[in-house]
Fold this sequence. Notes:
Layout: E1 8-17, E2 37-45, E3 53-59, H1 64-72, H2 83-88, H3 91-99, H4 101-104, H5 111-132, H6 136-141, H7 145-151, H8 163-173, H9 177-187, E4 189-193, H10 203-215, E5 220-224, H11 229-243, E6 248-252, H12 259-268, E7 274-278, H13 286-296, E8 300-303, H14 310-318, E9 324-325, H15 335-348, H16 361-375, E10 385-387, E11 401-402, E12 405-406, H17 420-426, H18 432-446
Parallel strand pairs: 4-10, 5-6, 6-7, 7-8, 8-9
Antiparallel strand pairs: 1-2, 2-3, 4-12, 11-12
Helix pairs in contact: 1-5, 7-8, 8-15, 9-16, 10-11, 12-13, 14-15
InterPro entries: Enolase-like_C_sf, Enolase-like_N, Enolase_C-like, L-fuconate_dehydratase, Mandelate_racemase_C, Mandelate_racemase_N_dom, RHMD-like
Keywords: Lyase, Magnesium, Metal-binding
GO molecular function: L-fuconate dehydratase activity; magnesium ion binding
Amino acid sequence: MSPTPARITAVDTHDIRFPTSRELDGSDAMNPDPDYSAAYVVLRTDAADGHEGHGFAFTIGRGNDVQVAAIDALRGHLLGRSVDDLCADPSTLNRDLIGDSQLRWLGPEKGVMHMAIGAVVNAVWDLAAKRAGLPLWRLLAEAEPEWLVRQIDFRYLTDALTPEEALTLLRQGGQGAEERTARLLERGYPAYTTSPGWLGYDDDKLTRLAAQAVADGFRQIKLKVGADLDDDIRRCRVARSVIGPDLRMAVDANQRWDVDEAIRWTKALAEFDPYWIEEPTSPDDILGHAAVRRAVAPVKVATGEHVQNRIVFKQLLQAGALDVVQIDAARVGGVPENLAILLLAAKFGVPVCPHAGGVGLCELVQHLSMFDYVALSGTTEDRVIEYVDHLHDHFLDPVVIREGHYTAPTAPGFSAAMRPESLARYTYPGGEFWAADLDERKKGQSA
């Protein structure tokens, strides 16, 4: 009698929130008081190896419970599935989730439901990488190009990128992969830091953290802008005086402006030589981004952390609307959709510099950039991964930054697993931290 195949036996979800708004960590012109949060999912199996799949969607506080509910709505597509089949061909799950017509109506392929699909799909890839004994970037980089292409949904893309073109890009990109893998393991992948630049920080904190970034070996920092022009001019002047003329300084408006305002404001900051202006207007405004790009050159235009799916990225690239593609590991439908976006960027010759401001995003997106370097683009020129120095201690395999570079992960998986004690402490509203916080608030109200 053949052994019973291992199955997915449980889909556990957690509403995890961190009180980052109290120190103004993560603050920007559009989001002044974010509490970095994760709608967190764990796929459990009855396999003898004991491996679990971990994934999450990133939010900034209120609404994280809505995101958890969306993940819960996918449970029926997961329970009872063969672990071997799922890990051998994750695309089968992706097609089932995207293709659920009733849930699809809530998008399609955008918003809370799509982010829920991304969290679950990423958890499957975490499980697959653990079972293969490889960090995700190596699982992807060492996979057969034909298999990778089969993982991608090319619907709505073929006017810009066909499966045949993707296969050619991967075959060409894989040449020299062994040498680049060795170089990556030795040197790491270049990073830039946003840690000095949160809008709520005063000038003393900006100065101290910018100087620390230089000392730590970063060659680029980023400042949040967009609330007050005079304040932005002062802060850019402070930052530039600290980092000197040779380091790159990007600025990020977090969608604050209309198109004409974006152009005026960016030109007003031009004296400080900003490398890029990020999210100058609505992430859905493709033609608006194109207009900004034409008007503010040589300042580059970057966007992507709120771009809903591969189709919008396709149009941004077709319209010549951006100079820098910023993928987000948890915004779109998981690893396969990000593979599609990386391939689109390679086809159009646009560098990818991922967004990673948020809980766990650094841990995830490093794998995608490292795959891109080893097996697709073959270069780190004008490519950097965002780094923020928050909340890494809550992860079992946290990012390691050395001399301004991400150290390549070596542990199997997607680096997504949070520490059990962090899950227990920061589950909302009943975790240890939040329960104690509520008690303190009640005492304050009764005093």
